[in-house]
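Contributing new records

If you add data, match the layout below exactly. Sequence lines come first and carry their own label; structure lines follow with theirs. Keep one chain per record. Anything else will be rejected by the validation script.
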Amino acid sequence: MDKRVFLDAPAVGELEKEYLAKALDSGFVSTLGPFVTLFEEKFAQYVGVKYAIAVQSGTAAIHVALYELGIGRGDEVIVPSLTFVATVNPILYVGAKPVIVDVDRNTWNILPEAVENAITENTKAIIPVHIYGNPCDMNSLKRIWGKYKVYLIEDAAESLGATYDGNQTGSFGDLGCFSFNGNKVLTTGGGGMIVTNNKKRAEHIKYIVNQARDDPGTFYHSEMGFNYRMTNIEAALGLAQMSKLDGFLNKKRVFKQIYHEILSCLPGVKFQQEYSGALSSNWLTCIEIDGGIEINVLGDELRRRNIESRRLFGPIGEINYLKGFSGKCPNSVDIYEKGLCLASSTVNTVDDIKKTALEIRDVLTAGEGC
């Protein structure tokens, strides 16, 4: 296969260039400008919340969320083992302790029973991660959240457009956090968003992410702030991408369906499953291979055929500086050892994905098919 098939490359084109030109022509290129406010308003409307505050990254969003909720030294925050380190690092930024628990073997999302078992008198928050765009069991997590009176911060970095019981991910907890990194469903180059229905918190977050500057005309700051504000240029790119979001999501669903149709017949091939009432954003379609071939071997062979893929996130408790925060997480280990992220970028065509699925089947069956 001569044409490269991309894992998660961003789909940008003429509309994005048009919006960026408008931002440049307006003279507002930094943290002031009309596109930031407009992007926040449109994003809040899409997610179904009252307020959205644009920031510099998904990591910044989680950091500010923890800070806003007063979480710090001596506090514990429960997180899943199967996630990117950006979920966990901000907990360390605020001086709190991450408590890493295992995930469900089928959905790959945080296990509600593991969360409840991990709660102590020091637990202040839970951060469920809608991994690879697949919504968590929010009904069970909301029950725990209410029972123990802890905060719920959703890491929805990968799940923009995903729903649970008809509601958008990010809209369930005290605060929801999104990422617009170049590889996400929607990109602003970098960037992120914090969403909430709490007006007081929204106003304070908007204040502190702009250096807690009391008056634009002065340099007085009544408290410590952060330089986390999104730029007008990034927001312009985000607005252009918002207009394409439904198309991106539809395309990703079609890609996942193609992979299912061609690969589900193979023994040992298993897909990430969804909870009842959940609809994934399918940020990345991923599979597990149980027997027959090592994941690294499959990835190398696909690379040789000009097809991008990627290993799953490794269990974060096995990372050197996080080893002291995790118990045994056998499900996360097993999923990592068997899992691979498949080409899912919306720059790919339907034919690209069909050919990719057939190439994967060819590798797994040595050309014999199902």
